[in-house]
């Protein structure tokens, strides 16, 4: 194996999906707190009547309780340390720091929680890797300001980011500005606070929101670099390796366009510092009223100066594109869509398992951008069961991760510069797309069901000891 000695092995989570404690010690409501649990989650968010009202008589809100990490973080981090984590990627809940989002001073109680969390990581020499905004923004900003389409959010976000960077600059080196920024293609409610009732069904708003996020991100990068030149601030997007269904040039062109739109658009702006040449084509495709977009020359120069230091990305699956639609079967994947790949198996949620696609992703991103890469999410969401002896034999997860780590090693041998690997949901948590607890990713099982019933006890799965060995051998023992 060829991983560097300081390779950052670890795991990843997001505040809104595990902390719970959604309304204590001054925390405000976030968009995630207004999202019902269950497989219908994305459809509910996309329905015309959805206006962020929380109706506890009608729905369960699993993000309210998460896995109560807020009160169990010491126990959880001790387990991560036992696995030998070198890094832990987590996010800060914006609404814990600025409960409404538009205040001028932060909530000290919220910061105190992260002081303790960061110190707990450092106690075990675990490098904290922080996502400043992971599918979470104060609900007030979505309801009253209309989400990221409103330019005021740039100022609010930058104020929030500055508080974090100033406070933690000597303890935290690696940062990411927005989680999966390209996910607004299908997740604008979560990532931009945009749903149909506040303009999410008009793509002009989505592109305006992206632009505002790009400016906010670039300002944050510039601020961080001026504050402390050692800080490494990255972008973060989903990479979906996309194959053409067949050699028909019509399908090949459709595939190329879909790659440009999904895998390159946001990265191009954040890594290269400029909108790509195909932007106008995207606007036309989506009926964006480009003349209404507020993009100033000053914005463009901020974007140009505030390019990121590395690319963080998530990789779960590949997709297949077919424009002609001949001989295809729809994929079971409700998030990225596309058609079924006859050469690959899908997870229970229809996500095509494709380790070679990760090697492809790493080579593609490194070839295009030539900045260090960090795989900050990867993993298999599956139903786990506890057997009569209290064991959780998640061999399927070990198999998935083993194959992806091998592919990652191949890419490093291909010449890719890779900083680390933090598989998703290292401890079971609430799923983002379906709000389920039963879609589990962890090395650590948490005894809670979709309704939040259970003891909340933490149990090691078989993959726990397996991953411990992987880390101890720096990827040799798979
Ligand atoms: C990524 C997100 O999309 O994938 C995480 O950054 C999310 O927040 C993860 O949880 C897995 O998706 P899901 O829908 O299975 O939770």
From TrEMBL:
Protein name: Glycoside hydrolase family 1 protein
InterPro entries, sorted: GH, GH_1_N_CS, Glyco_hydro_1, Glyco_hydro_1_AS
Catalytic residues in the record: 377 (nucleophile)
SUPFAM superfamilies in the cross-refs: (Trans)glycosidases (SSF51445)
Lineage: Bacteria, Bacillati, Bacillota, Bacilli, Lactobacillales
Keyword Hydrolase: yes
Pfam families found in the cross-reference section: Glyco_hydro_1
PROSITE patterns noted in UniProt: GLYCOSYL_HYDROL_F1_1, GLYCOSYL_HYDROL_F1_2
Gene Ontology terms describing biological process: carbohydrate catabolic process
A GO term for molecular function: beta-glucosidase activity
Recorded family membership: Belongs to the glycosyl hydrolase 1 family.
């Amino acid at each position: 194996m060829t991983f560097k000695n300081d390779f950052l092995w670890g795991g990843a989570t997001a505040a809104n999906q595990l902390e719970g404690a959604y309304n204590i010690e001054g925390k405000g409501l976030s968009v995630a707190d207004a999202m019902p649990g269950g497989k219908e989650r994305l459809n509910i968010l996309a329905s015309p009547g959805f206006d962020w009202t929380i109706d506890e008589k009608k729905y369960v809100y699993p993000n309210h309780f998460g896995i109560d990490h807020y009160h169990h973080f010491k126990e959880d981090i001790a387990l991560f340390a036992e696995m030998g984590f070198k890094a832990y990627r987590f996010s800060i809940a914006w609404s814990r720091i600025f409960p409404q989002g538009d205040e001028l001073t932060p909530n000290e109680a919220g910061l105190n929680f992260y002081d303790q969390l960061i110190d707990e990581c450092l106690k075990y020499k675990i490098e904290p890797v922080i996502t400043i905004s992971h599918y979470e923004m104060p609900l007030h900003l979505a309801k009253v300001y209309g989400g990221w389409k409103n330019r005021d959010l740039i100022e609010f976000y930058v104020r929030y980011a500055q508080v974090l960077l100033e406070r933690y600059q000597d303890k935290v080196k690696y940062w990411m500005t927005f989680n999966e920024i390209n996910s607004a293609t299908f997740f604008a409610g979560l990532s931009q606070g945009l749903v149909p009732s506040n303009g999410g069904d008009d793509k002009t708003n989505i592109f305006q929101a992206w632009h505002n996020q790009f400016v906010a991100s670039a300002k944050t990068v510039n601020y961080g670099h001026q504050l402390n030149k050692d800080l490494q601030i990255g972008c973060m997007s989903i990479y979906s390796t996309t194959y053409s269904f067949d050699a028909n040039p019509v399908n090949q062109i459709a595939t190329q366009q879909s790659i440009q739109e999904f895998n390159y658009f946001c990265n191009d702006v954040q890594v290269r510092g400029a909108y790509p040449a195909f932007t106008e084509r995207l606007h036309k495709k989506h009926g964006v009223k480009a003349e209404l977009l507020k993009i100033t020359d000053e914005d463009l120069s901020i974007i140009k100066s505030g390019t990121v230091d590395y690319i963080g990305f998530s990789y779960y699956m590949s997709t297949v594109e077919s424009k002609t639609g001949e001989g295809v079967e729809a994929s079971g994947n409700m998030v990225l869509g596309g058609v079924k790949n006859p050469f690959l198996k899908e997870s229970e949620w229809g996500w095509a398992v494709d380790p070679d696609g990760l090697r492809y992703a790493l080579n593609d991103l490194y070839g295009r951008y030539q900045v260090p890469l960090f795989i900050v999410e990867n993993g298999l969401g599956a139903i786990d069961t506890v057997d009569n002896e209290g064991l959780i034999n998640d061999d399927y997860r070990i198999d998935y991760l083993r194959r992806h780590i091998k592919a990652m090693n191949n890419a490093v041998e291909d010449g890719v510069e890779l900083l680390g690997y933090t598989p998703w949901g290292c401890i079971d948590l609430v799923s983002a797309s379906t709000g389920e607890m039963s879609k589990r990713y962890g090395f650590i099982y948490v005894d809670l069901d979709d309704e939040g019933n259970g003891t909340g006890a933490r149990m090691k799965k078989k993959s726990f000891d397996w991953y411990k060995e992987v880390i101890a051998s720096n990827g040799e023992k798979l």
